[in-house]
Design goal:
Order of helices and strands: EEHHHHHEHEHHEHHEHEH
Distance between the termini: 19 Å
Pfam family, one: Hydrolase
Shape: elongated
Protein name: HAD family phosphatase
Largest sheet: 5 strands, parallel
Number of helices: 12
Strand content: 5-15%
InterPro entries: HAD-like_sf (IPR036412), HAD-SF_hydro_IA (IPR006439), HAD_sf (IPR023214), PGP-like_dom2 (IPR023198)
Oligomer: single chain
Helix content: 40-55%
Length: about 210
């Protein structure tokens, strides 16, 4: 278990999906199935986060190329615009309590975000959640920096950019592999498995 205490951190680093913003991927599946005239189950059975997905998150292939790869892997003949509509439908609002926790934490220390994401999602959430994301000094996004969690290089890049020792950064993420990746690079990491976890960790930090 991560031990946190008042004064033990100089910066807080947050994943976005399921930590700050709620994500519901079934909305994308339902949208695509509606456009394709098939059952959502048919898409679920074929959808994988493959190499094209990773390259798209690192800004290495275009949206059109990624949607073309989906068209092929999912076996559905829908347009790029229809793919994009479903792709951006996954954002299901803010995580509970986060709108109250972030401004409170930001009064005491700098907040940063570090997310594996892609350009269309960045375009969408930057506008849709501008107020909430305004509490972060900087957003480190895989599609901009060309690096993804849980790679060591990605964490090293973000730690260097923040400019404080890794062990003085508390990192919040919902995926175990990213927590392990962060700890391997010296960060203090909190595995967010319920909305209460962020609030509890901040309390331990005296925030």
């Amino acid at each position: 278990m991560t031990s946190l205490s008042p004064g033990s951190a100089d910066a807080l680093l947050f994943d976005l999906g399921r930590v700050v913003l709620d994500i519901d991927f079934s909305k994308a599946i339902a949208c695509w199935a509606g456009h394709a005239g098939c059952q959502p189950e048919a898409i679920i059975a074929r959808y994988v986060r493959d190499e094209a997905y990773r390259l798209h998150e690192m800004g290495k292939i275009s949206d059109a190329d990624y949607f073309a790869s989906l068209r092929s892997s999912l076996g559905i003949g829908i347009s790029d615009a229809q793919f994009l509509e479903g792709w951006n439908a996954i954002f299901a609002g803010e995580m509970p309590d986060i709108a109250e926790l972030l401004p409170r934490a930001a009064k005491q220390m700098p907040l940063y975000a570090f997310s594996n994401t892609n350009r269309p999602h960045v375009d969408f959430f930057s506008k849709e959640y501008a107020g909430l994301l305004g509490h972060f000094r900087e957003l480190y996004l895989s599609s901009s920096i060309g690096l993804r969690k849980p790679d060591a290089e990605a964490f090293d890049h973000v730690v260097a950019a923040i400019g404080v020792p890794a062990e003085r950064i508390v990192f919040f993420d919902d995926l175990a592999e990213n927590i392990e990746g962060a700890r391997a690079r010296g960060l203090t990491a909190v595995h967010v498995t319920s909305p209460r976890d962020v609030g509890n960790a901040l309390k331990e930090l005296g925030i």
